[in-house]
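Name: ABC transporter ATP-binding protein
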Amino acid sequence: MIRVENVTYGYGNALALKDISFSEKEPEIIAIWGRNGAGKTTLMKLLAGHERPDKGIVEILGMAPYNHPEAVQHVCYMQEDHPFSSIWNVRDALRIASYYYANWDEDLAQRLLKTFQLNERKRISKLSKGMKSALQFIIGLSSHAEITILDEPSNGLDASMRKKMNQSLRESHEMHPRLILLSTHHIEEIQTLCESLIVIHDKKVLMQESIDDIREHGVWLAGEKVKVERILKGQKPLEVSRLGSNMKVMMDVPYNDEWRELASSHGLSIEKAKLQDYLLNKTEEAV
Ligand SMILES: Nc1ncnc2c1ncn2[C@@H]1O[C@H](COP(=O)(O)OP(=O)(O)OP(=O)(O)O)[C@@H](O)[C@H]1O
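Structure predicted for ABC transporter ATP-binding protein:
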């Protein structure tokens, strides 16, 4: 459904993406994670046809989206701070979206308005940051576009609203499978929602794997320093913390029976590292 092959893109002389490749054939929910400035938004703009790659191929549904109305009619791209007209209220934005998106689901839009307690008569310029994110999310989800791209949809939303967002996304995707690509800094919260994860780092795709495979990785081992060092056998841990004669290390290994038995035979405790901490360390390591 989407293909990015050897794509390079820069703003003037400043490279934002360097020779990146990935593809997705299934209508899955894909998360894009990366540190600030990693290139997530740039990648989304290329997929939405807002920019043209300097080098390489970007395709959605087999078509290059830049300057291609037939291709972009299958795409709904909700930018982080979507530029709505300053005179519109919520109802205007939904009405215009309903004309624009061929598969628009008005019932869903109305349900989501209630879920997020958005007043249709309210001017968009008067919405809080979280309320504006909610509106963008409502449009993104109700568009039912075959390729839906949501840049930081939970930006500014509190934990309860983020939970509602994830629930709505899951339900809507189950009923109408489509490719939903979303960027996030809250990877812990959406890991049960998405099927695969793309990690962008230093202008490149560092990982593209199923979320289950990535979640397996990252293990904390803790215990006496000498015992930890014995198990490390010279390998470099992702993170180290020391307390007196004890040591705790994060290893880039799977949390499986083999490692649980190894830890136990060395007299060490073992626990799964949080995905967010694992990814932070992986992107630290890759610098
Ligand atoms: N309009 C622009 N002009 C010049 N440089 C830009 C522009 N937009 C982005 N960049 C640069 O391109 C790089 C990638 O930016 P991008 O916005 O794609 O990152 P991001 O991963 O979405 O970041 P964040 O998580 O902070 O939103 C950064 O170095 C950024 O400074």
